[in-house]
């Protein structure tokens, strides 16, 4: 968000409806990616027959349907789109879970029925066949269930690809609890591993790369909680570490997904990034989607816990999940759920 000379701050925005819901065709769970080479935004969502999570039938893209056959898989359905771009091979990865049954049933019965799949696309605009990585990650056998994102993952400057995720774990004689973690790859997406989990209860999450005063990379994580305040953490080779922020971010009611990105500091300082976070601002209900900015994500102790601005509300009224993308030169895009009965996914460009 950038103030222009002679203009009021935050006064410039464009709004476009990308996916419009109607009876029998509901769009939820936005994911957004900006291709800097093509100067193009790619918007994804779940297509459902109702608002119920268990009725997802396909993943859709703003320019068409992602070619994923969902009709021959014994009730399995695609959910939680999460896009991440691999810059060396110029490949867009679209991760998602393929799952049968409800999340609640899996949690209550400690019966993980979720699978981790992805498809890829290069400049020819053709989507690949589905690749599954579930069976090469033995940790999954010990989870009650899991999901990714949703929204977007990142690739760090060093080349590591990161897909944010969370899993419900715990002894079979106890109720499973959710914990955020990441899938990551250091070989351009050929093989994948699991990070250690955040010890605090944490659900849907996103991550962003920032730098300390010595130019060292740090990964910031912002996760949904079960009420109160958002969970904020940093990730290193030892795993996740919760942090105590200078300004806590309020969670909404029983929780809601939120989106976070890092972007070049508008002050022009080299090797410095700021953070942008998007989430409903009402502490009780999913209302009034707001954008928060953090110009100093590292405090004097170099923990990822700098001060967040007050929110700028970009959608008054019923608001849900969202996903942010940095375009360039201070421009951002936000793909959001808005509306109550007639839900739609709406693209909001801001600077």
UniProtKB/TrEMBL annotation:
Superkingdom as given in the UniProt entry: Eukaryota
Keyword terms: Carbohydrate metabolism, Glycosidase, Hydrolase, Lipid degradation, Lipid metabolism
Biological processes, Gene Ontology terms: ganglioside catabolic process; oligosaccharide catabolic process
One Gene Ontology molecular-function label: exo-alpha-sialidase activity
Domain spans labelled Sialidase: 74-332
Annotated family: Belongs to the glycosyl hydrolase 33 family.
Name recorded for this polypeptide: exo-alpha-sialidase
Top-level taxonomy: Eukaryota, Metazoa, Chordata, Craniata, Vertebrata
């Amino acid at each position: 968000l950038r103030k222009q000379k002679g203009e009021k701050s935050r006064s410039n925005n464009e709004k476009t409806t990308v996916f419009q819901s109607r009876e029998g065709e509901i769009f939820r769970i936005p994911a957004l990616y900006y291709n800097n080479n093509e100067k193009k935004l790619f918007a994804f969502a779940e297509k459902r027959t109702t608002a119920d999570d268990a009725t997802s039938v396909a993943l859709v893209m703003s320019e068409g349907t992602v070619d994923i056959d969902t009709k021959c898989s014994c009730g399995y359905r695609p959910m939680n789109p999460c896009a991440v771009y691999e810059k060396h091979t110029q490949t867009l990865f679209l991760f998602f879970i393929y799952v049968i049954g409800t999340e609640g049933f899996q949690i209550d019965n400690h019966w993980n029925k979720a699978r981790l799949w992805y498809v890829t696309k290069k400049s020819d605009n053709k989507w690949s066949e589905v690749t599954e990585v579930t069976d090469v990650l033995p940790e999954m056998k010990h989870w009650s269930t899991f999901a990714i994102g949703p929204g977007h993952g990142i690739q760090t400057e060093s080349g590591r690809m990161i897909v944010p995720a969370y899993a419900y774990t715990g002894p079979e004689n106890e109720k499973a609890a959710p914990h955020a973690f990441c899938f990551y790859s250091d070989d351009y997406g050929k093989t994948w591993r699991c990070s250690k989990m955040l010890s605090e209860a944490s659900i849907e999450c996103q991550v962003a790369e920032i730098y300390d005063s010595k130019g060292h990379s740090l990964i910031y994580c912002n996760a949904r909680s079960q009420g109160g305040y958002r969970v904020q953490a940093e990730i290193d080779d030892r795993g996740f570490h919760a942090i105590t922020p200078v300004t806590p971010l309020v969670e909404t009611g029983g929780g809601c997904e939120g989106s976070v990105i890092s972007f070049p500091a508008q002050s022009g300082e080299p090797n410095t990034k700021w953070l942008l976070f998007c989430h409903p601002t009402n502490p009780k209900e999913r209302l009034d989607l707001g954008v928060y900015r953090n110009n100093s994500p590292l405090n004097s102790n170099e923990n990822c816990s700098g001060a967040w601005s007050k929110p700028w509300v970009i959608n008054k009224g019923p608001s849900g999940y969202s996903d942010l993308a940095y375009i360039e030169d201070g421009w951002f895009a936000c793909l959001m759920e808005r509306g109550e009965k007639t839900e739609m996914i709406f693209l909001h460009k801001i600077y």
